[in-house]
Amino acid sequence: MGGTGKTPVVAAIAQWLVDQGQRPAILSRGYAREDAVDGVVVVDQSTPVSRAGDEPLMLARQVRGATVCVSPDRYLGGVLAEKLGCTVHILDDGFQHIELARDLDILVTTIGEIPKGRVIPMGRLREPKDAAARAHFLVATDATAGAASAEAWELGISQACGVRRTPGEPVGIREPGAGNRPNKIVAVAGIANPDRFITSLREAGYNVVDSITFPDHHRYTAKDLAAIESKMKGSGAEAVLTTDKDGVRFESLSPSFPLYRVPLIVEFDSPDALFASVKAVLG
Questions:
Q1: Mean pLDDT, to the nearest integer, of 269-282?
Q2: Going by fewer Cβ within 10 Å, which terminus of the chain is more open, N or C?
Q3: DSSP state of 263
Q4: Taking a C-beta distance cutoff of 8 angstroms, is the pair 245, 200 a contact?
Q5: Last residue of one domain, picked from the residues 98, 129, 146
Q6: CA angle (12 as vertex; 10, 16 as ends), nearest 5
Q7: What is the pLDDT of residues 219-243, one digit of tens each?
């Protein structure tokens, strides 16, 4: 049901494809958009988040050589992308979107989440665990290659790798550019698994004196800013750190406190296995 780190993996694969001379299209349904127009939205860096959706806008900014198409009809998005010259499609969050044929299914999960999970509404799985065997490749978040291989074997998937995500240096949201690392911070996250973001900041050496979480894809308001500022002043924090995904939703507001987004650095263990599988289906 989200929170396993699919979008950073999509960004990494898209960037690899760009580096290989491909023109990738990232096809997204644009979940939780406020302005969900008919047809296809081709997202660029200036597209309003209300029209693009938070994850598509984030991806368009992270992978400059990719074309991000947003539409509930992802087939239609792919047709338009090919007319724009795209050579390969990446379906973000599409394991259950079986209407589209695919050459490679990559399943992103955490160790134990599927074998020990239960189907909604009793758990967080969208399908029974046996469905995982449809995947050609497993990426296990915050796991080593060995742990990922063991998980893949249990799920009936032939190939696997681990991926480690670490926080990068903070970047100002209203005033882009890296800032000095603050000593005390408040962590703010409106994502599927906010606790993982908060934990990652602590593991990276940040002194997280307080935190505040919101539902996934939350639309921030002036009232939210006031609540965050109150938390910051009450805890003696020097700044607020949030995720890349939350960052695009804060841009239309004017916070009166230092607010930074924290990009994720993705490292695969080992990258050769994953990208060899991607390369094999390119023909």
A1: 94
A2: C
A3: P
A4: no
A5: 98
A6: 115
A7: 999 999 999 999 999 999 999 999 9
**What confidence tens digit (pLDDT) does each residue in 14-48 have?**
999 999 999 999 999 887 787 777 789 999 988 99
Peptide bond before residue 167 is cis, with ω within 30 degrees of 0: no
- pTM for this predicted structure: 0.91
Count of domains for the chain: 3
Q: How far is residue 181's CA from residue 50's CA, in Å, rounded to a whole number?
A: 31
Domain encompassing residue 70 = 1-98
Three-state helix/strand/coil letters over 167-197: ECCCEECCCCCECCCCCEEEEEECCCCHHHH
CA dihedral 8, 248, 67, 26 (to 10 degrees): 40
Cα–Cα distances in Å, from 266 out to 55, 99, 114? 16, 30, 22
**CA separation for the pair 124, 118 (Å, rounded):** 6
Same domain, 156 and 80: no
